[in-house]
Amino acid sequence: MRTQVGIVGAGPAGLLLARLLHLQGIESVVLEARDREYVERRVRAGVLEHGTAQTLREAGVGDRMDAEGLVHEGTELRFDGQGHRIDFAELTGRTITVYGQQEIVKDLIAARLAGGGDLRFDVSDVTLADLDTDRPRVRFATDGQAAELACDFVIGADGFHGVCRDCVPELTVYERHYPFAWLGILAEAPPSSHELIYCRHEHGFALHSMRSPRITRMYLQVPVDEPIAAWPDDRIWRELQTRFATRDGFALTEGPLLDKGITPMRSFVAAPMQSGRLLLAGDAAHIVPPTGAKGMNLAVADVRLLAHALGGFYAEGRTDLLAAYTETALTRVWRATHFSWWMTAMLHVDPADDPFAARLAQAQLDYVTSSRAMATALAENYTGLPYAQGWSYR
Ligand code: FAD
Ligand code: DHB
Q1: For residue 24, how far is its CA from the centre of ligand 2 (angstroms)?
Q2: How does pLDDT run across 334-351, given as a tens digit for each residue?
């Protein structure tokens, strides 16, 4: 088999890149380890930066997002039993869209298959070879048969647990582990507020989000390595009610849980994001703690750069844009890494913290909610900093 760009991983990064390449007349094959149903059901991110939503529209996969996604002009920071609104629209002129990651994945898969694009699920044993030549190869197994894909470029969009990152020699890893995790739930209950609520309570962080007018998505800070069995549904609701309680009697609307799971939190950046003809994108190269809602948005930003750089290569033989990929991508990655770390520190309770650290978090929250300059800094990072250029080379 032969293609121009071999893409490992059908998450948001791999699928969107295949789409942006297709729109520029560049052929690709996408190889995914899981089955279609699994990737379409995986409940993960929900907040799209202004530019992410715009990119999906430009890619021709924004119709359902525009019909069903919820546009939010602000968010609430809640602490000491009181809410404080950050008005994104007023401070930055930008908004966010709440639309589930798995819905984006469904839309991208549908567009790929409708256009006759090559997308293979259930592949296994992916290995990469000849990355230092101009004919790199992806070897894999499908239906019990060994197969080989010869390409011009290989894109490692295979997430944090993928195999591509290990093919970059002399990788430098920057890492921070946090002493807590997030327990996430999806509940069949109408949202209790029309915007997201990021809440700091002495028991720890809690987040109120949503997926639709009937479905609430919420998260609770829990100890690291916490077994999910320690959290029967009634304990989850009790703790959520405690953390979100306000002085004026706020109560969450409860309902049956449709999904629950625990996610560890880490910051991780691997550099360089490329070696020879292999380029990494999204979670394969970097992870942020979810507090800033940046992970999927960073994956989209990486892929926009790759679409532009590969567009330049195929249109005019340019190699400079590809050569600059790591440096260009990492500027945004480190900004988001700092923002996510900052939001995490401000809103979580570290079990090892002393009263000094708790006072610092409190002082930061007081400042963000009383200073227009600080509120603007939060809003412009959260809604997403502008991109340096378009994703299309032409
Ligand atoms: P992935 O989505 O991980 O996709 C990688 C794909 O590669 C997967 O389908 C995987 O099955 C496949 N794969 C892996 N190994 C192989 C292999 N060897 N061969 C073939 N295929 C392979 N981000 C936000 O922007 N906003 C949010 O609000 C947000 N909230 C989150 C909440 C939670 C609970 C979690 C867990 C994450 C959240 N994130 C959020 C992060 C976001 O989900 C990820 O950053 C995003 O999925 C990254 O996309 P990706 O395509 O790079 O990787
Ligand atoms: C959601 C997830 C996040 O990590 C976040 O910061 C905001 C919202 C969500 O799943 O809706």
Answers
A1: 32
A2: 999 999 999 999 999 999
